[in-house]
Design goal:
alpha+beta; 3 domains; 6-stranded mixed β-sheet
Length: 401
């Protein structure tokens, strides 16, 4: 009996000791500095504020690091990392230098090689969506579907989209070397950076006097370009209109809603947005009388996102009987980012709103389902396909005949 009692007491003592040890390990942060056979422990401060922790690590680095320390670069990296901790792919800190490029892009004016690129989420590679017309990228033969493996000898993945985009922009007249993967073959190409003015809109008249407008992005000035192109088509008495939003990843929301206003009766809802929990919904309504009263078909695909989805939903839900959507289910980016410019010239892009369609349907991570789901022929791309082979375009023309 004494032996059993002693064993129970021993087990209780060991359990208490083990619990104390585990608690100590969990609640104490330890940094090890190992040199040879010896190791030194540094007990981290219990201070929890971000400023206090950064000060601690700053002092620690200054005391032990043998290389040069660039305080400004380290601070920028720390802030970038803080935003990455949100786990939101759309929110980021933008340095002063990056901010200049970012705002130039938004106005459609920048220096670069002239390509639209995105991150292929399946392969984590940089995918070229399309070279801009008349751009250096087009001149050297870059094509939709090409994969960028390296930029100036450095490998880049899809997760490094922003960094890669920034590298492709530099002083006009400078050159950049790209390693490209195309159809399982790799090759290198050197491209000269030039000043580029982006055209957002292309328009033409298809068979049976049907107007066609392609919108590549909703940058500043897009609405004005759309209005000019539509008025030109209108002079030819078009009887229907195709709006091609395939591979349009979005842009400035106001440019999109201004275009949607042209298709919508005054005071009808164009967009519903919500902010942080507890805030009221904001409703964007049509400000003008409806200008476009002809049948419309909107072409969309899996790369149609954000402002493109806003435009698609606004036109469709305000004109159920005369508007059709053709193609593939859209991307499903139903959140809006606001750009904040800071006093030092840097900026913050932050997800501040979620948006809903005029009928309060959710877009985020769902997308818009087309009325007619049509695949392109296998191996064909909407960038390079001819009208005759473009099954989505042909369906649109069939609907409007």
């Amino acid at each position: 009996m004494k032996t059993e009692k002693s064993q129970k007491i021993y087990k209780i003592i060991m359990l208490v000791v083990l619990t104390a040890v585990i608690t100590f390990i969990i609640t104490t942060s330890v940094i090890y500095n190992t040199m040879g056979d010896s190791s030194t422990k540094y007990i981290m401060s219990n201070k929890t504020g971000i400023g206090q922790k950064l000060e601690y690590y700053k002092s620690f680095i200054e005391k032990h690091y043998i290389g040069e320390i660039n305080d400004e670069k380290m601070l920028e990296s720390a802030i970038k990392g803080y935003f990455e901790g949100l786990g939101d792919q759309y929110s980021e800190y933008i340095t002063k230098e990056e901010m200049q490029d970012y705002m130039a892009d938004a106005t459609g004016k920048y220096v670069g090689i002239g390509i639209y690129i995105t991150a292929n989420t399946q392969t984590n590679q940089l995918l070229i969506l399309s070279p801009m017309k008349g751009s250096p990228a087009e001149e050297v033969g870059l094509e939709p579907g090409d994969i960028i493996l390296k930029i100036d000898g450095k490998e880049y993945t899809g997760e490094q989209l922003t960094a890669a985009t920034n590298v492709l922009k530099a002083e006009e007249g400078t050159k950049v070397k790209l390693e490209i993967l195309r159809n399982e073959k790799t090759f290198e190409v050197e491209v000269e950076r030039k000043s580029i003015k982006v055209s957002h809109i292309e328009s033409t008249i298809k068979e049976n006097n049907i107007g066609y407008i392609q919108i590549s992005t909703f940058d500043e000035g897009c609405y004005k370009e759309f209005l000019e192109n539509y008025n030109t088509l209108k002079e030819s008495n078009i009887k229907g209109l195709i709006i091609d939003l395939r591979n349009n990843g979005g842009g400035i929301v106001e440019e999109s809603t201004n275009i949607a206003d042209m298709f919508t009766t005054k005071d009808n809802t164009l967009l519903i947005t919500t902010g942080k929990a507890g805030t009221k919904e904001e409703i964007t309504k049509a400000k003008k009388d409806k200008e476009i009263n002809i049948p419309v078909v909107i072409l969309v695909n899996e790369n149609t996102a954000s402002a493109s989805e806003i435009l698609t939903a606004a036109i469709k839900e305000n004109n159920e009987d005369t508007v059709s959507i053709v193609g593939k289910n859209t991307y499903g980016k139903g959140v809006i980012q606001s750009i904040f410019t800071l006093t030092d010239g840097s900026g913050v892009k932050l997800t501040t709103n979620e948006y809903y369609t005029p009928k309060h349907n959710t877009i985020n991570k769902i997308g818009i389902k087309p009325d007619y789901e049509i695949n392109l022929p296998e191996g064909e791309s909407s960038y390079t396909i001819t009208d005759e082979k473009d099954t989505q375009l042909q369906k649109a023309l069939e609907i409007l005949r």
